[in-house]
Amino acid sequence: MATSLSTSANEASVNALVAATEKRFGGAGIEISTKKHAGGRHNHSYLTMTVPAQHLKSLAKWLKHEQNIDLCSLITGVHWPAKAPEQEWEVVYHLVRTTVRNPPVVEGSQTVGLRVDYNALPVSQTPLEIEIHVLLPSDSPVVDTVEDIWPSASWNEKETWDLVGIEFSGHQNLHRVLLPADTPVGYHPLQKQHKIRYHEFNEMYDDPQGFGRKPIDKDRVK
Amino acid sequence: MWITMGPQHPMTHGLWTLRVKVDGEIVTDSEPELGFIHRGVEKICESRDFTQITPYCDRLCYVSANTWAQAYVYAAEDLLEVEVPERAEYIRLIAVEIQRIASHLMWLGAYTPDVGNLTVFLYCWRDREMFVDLLQELGGSRLHYNFPRIGGVKRDLPIGFAQRARAKINIFFDRLREYERMLDESTIFLIRTQDIGCTKAEDLIAHGVSGPNLRAGGVNYDIRQANPYSVYEELDWEPAVESPSIKGGDSYDRYRVRMEEMRQSANMVLEALDKIPGGAETHHAPDDPAILAKAPLRAPEGASSMHRFEDSRGEAAFHIIGGGEQRGKYPYRISIRSPMFITIPYVTKVLIGHKIADIPAIFGSFDPCIGETDR
Amino acid sequence: MAEDDQNFTTFNSRGLVDVVAGVTDEALKATKLKQFIGVLAGRLFNWGQRKSLYPLHLGIKCCAIEMGASAGPRFDAERFGVFFRSTPRQCDVMLVNGPISKKFADPIVRLWEQMPEPKWCIAMGECAISGGPYFQSYNVLEGVDTLIPVDVYIPGCPPRPEALIDGFAKLRQKIMMIGTGKPEASGEGPILVGED
After folding, report:
1. Quick one: closest CA in A to C103, which residue?
2. Pairwise CB contact (< 8 Å): C86 & B142
3. Subunits adjacent to chain C (3 or more Cβ pairs under 8 Å)
4. Which of B9, B15, B59 is closest, CB to CB, to C60?
5. 20 to 30 A from A179, CA-CA: which of A27, A46, A90, C44?
6. A194 to C142: CB separation less than 8 angstroms, yes or no
């Protein structure tokens, strides 16, 4: 049978990381909590942290080097115009501790593939998921880059800047990656003030492409 | 000198530009340009119901549509706190694993012409038609099925599906052995793929690569085991891992991992058809609670969920924040993690030091799919 | 290049060709052979064009998989003379099979202009016809016919390979009608597969 991660091993590793983080970063204004996957058959927990922007870099370095959080999976940027002016921008970092190591070299030149039993690993090396939320004020949506810690963050940060508009200071090469290169400066489509085409349903009856609207449809909402 | 392998190119398997700087025949630098099919799916989904988003996720990676739709549905079920009946989980697993076989066959059919073997292209498309027919019975269409629903599946296994699936998979095992023999005994294929594009496991994970590309580096990391979901632990299987050489996992290892994964997926489908609760021959109506649970329509403000999924190409993940327009019927933000968006810039670094003729052999072995990259 | 009236003694091959062509032209017109050759050659070229349509190796999105499946062993499109070429210089037909984003608008017009006449365009799938499910997007154009003239529309998301082969058949009929030179054929609008 496949040896997937059991709920108890997952709980143990999450609690261990919570304790370690509170010990190390106790009074720095970091709020830590655990959440569970609520749907499906496996209710595994994961860690959620809310971090002030100035502590992000030291927390990230500590997680990578001391706690083996080696995969930065996704960086999400969210625009909350309702929470202006203190918390208008949010950056969410999704990090994972994997158990990936280079396989050992044996028998001279050939290495052997690694077979892992996740439930037999020590608690500080069990697979684990983390979410870090950073809230930024409206007048300066800038946060430190983490691309020197996790190289996979580099393109994620480019995309977040391109679509949402959050800047990452220290990034080597922040450029338009999904939108065309000649998009006007300052246009970031995932901000809430930009609406999609035909956002108001009535617009579909305004004949942008010349479909004839019948007089019986006057003042009707789709 | 910079060479542009432009958006319209027979090798690039998708619409993107690869610019390489060459010094004679050796590549010294390279840079990708993505975004030619950026559709703004994340923005459009902020004005769609949760059930209306499933077809958009089918079209993210069009080669392996079922895995992406299910990745989204698991995340939506986390958000709306829905529990799925067990029979529905088995049906979803069968659909995902058949889709994985179809996706890897498509990869093989697109990769082998790049290294010079045109016969396998036609063989793979012929075999892919077998599995696409099975998926058409389940989902209704050849390519985009809109198959999973939040809380279950669209409809039950059709009558006679198990018998047809078993027959086709038995044929497929023989064919798989034939292709492996054909390619492993072909000196040209071995010369073109061995020791080309070597990657070490720690580099791969630092750069965010996951899935078969990571397992070719000798590491047994599979999201179906590390962050478990669905009923994978009730089946007897092992992730397909290859022991690499001392320089790291090369293109030949990535090819071997995918062939082994096809075999594992086929075995999983056969086993799931035996173990499905209620038997594979019973057929429930589409709204039966045995295959579809009731799901709430609205997600409250402040709710968010994140779910990872083992897609054919790596780790797919959806981060959904609830509480959007229409009092929570639409999501506020949906963020999609695409494995290929992270892998393609890494592969452009792997290219450095190889010849121009090795570019298709390396890039094809990483299995790029641009639909999910550009979203 | 020297002017014609300045160099009487150099051998000007362009002039020789003009003279010979002029004489032959007059002779043919006199015997009504020119009209006969015109009709025959026109019919021959038309037969050649419609029996061997070479589409471009352009795969934008999901419909490209169905395009590949139609070239595969089950729905063999090659038996109809359809053979995919990688370079636009050698193609007659451009199959647009996906949404056109703003970034790709310029390359696709450039590909269209690189194709030599006579050329046709087939819009395959909903995204190419009108933007498809992404018609509300900020980055997708509403149909490829905002950029280039389309001859055949094939609806579907994605259309089955049989529908694509039917689209080629309808394009062949359209080319045949152009060849006959009937006045009502030249003004015909684009064809929609499935509307009969």
Report:
1. A180
2. no
3. A, B
4. B15
5. A90
6. no
pLDDT tens column, B76-115: 998 888 888 889 999 999 999 999 999 999 999 999 988 8
Q: Do B85 and C85 contact (CB within 8 A), yes or no?
A: no
- Which among B40, B219, B319 has the least Cβ separation from residue A114? B219
How many domains are there within chain C?
Answer: 2
Of the candidate ranges A77-81, A205-209, B315-319, C191-195, the one whose mean pLDDT is the lowest: A205-209
Q: Are B34 and B370 in contact (CB under 8 A)?
A: yes
Task: Report which DSSP code applies to C151.
Answer: S
Q: For residues B129 and C32, give the distance between their C-alpha atoms in angstroms, rounded to a whole number.
A: 56
- Facing residue for C133 by CB, picked from B6, B56, B122: B56
Q: Does the CB of B202 have a partner CB in chain A at under 8 Å?
A: yes
Structure token pair of residue A65: 């080097």
In Å, how far are B137, C174, C186, C192 from C189, measured between CA atoms?
38, 10, 9, 10
Q: Is residue A15 part of a domain?
A: yes
Edge-to-edge, what's the strand order for the sheet holding B26-33? Answer: B2-5, B17-23, B26-33
Instruction: Tell me, yes or no, if B187 comes closer than 8 A to chain C by beta carbon.
Output: no
Other Cβ atoms closer than 10 A to B1: 8
* Cβ-Cβ contacts under 8 Å, A194 against chain C: 138
Whether the CB of C113 is below 8 Å from some CB of chain B: the reply is no
Q: Could you tell me if C89 and C179 lie in one domain? A: yes
Superfamily of structural domain B2-374: Cytochrome-c3 Hydrogenase, chain B (1.10.645.10)
The tokens for C120 are 């046709």
pLDDT in tens, B132-160: 999 999 888 888 988 998 888 988 888 88
User: Residue C136 and residue A209: Cβ atoms within 8 Å?
Assistant: no
Q: Contacts of residue B8 in chain C, CB cutoff 8 Å?
A: 56-58, 88, 107, 111
Q: What are the tokens at B233?
A: 């632990």
A212, with CB counted inside 10 A (0-12, 13-18, 19+), is exposed
Residue C113 lies in a domain: yes
Q: Give the other-Cβ count within 10 Å of C87's Cβ.
A: 13
Which residues of chain B have a CB within 8 Å of the CB of C140?
A: 39-40
A37 part of a folded domain: yes
pTM of the model: 0.88
Q: Is residue C109 part of a domain?
A: yes
Based on the fold, state whether residues C45 and C58 are members of the same structural domain: no
Residue C186 reports pLDDT greater than 60: no
Asked if C138 and A189 come within 8 Å (Cβ–Cβ), the reply is yes
DSSP state of B42: H
ipTM over 0.90: no
Higher pLDDT, B51 or A117: B51
CB contact under 8 A, B233 and A2: yes
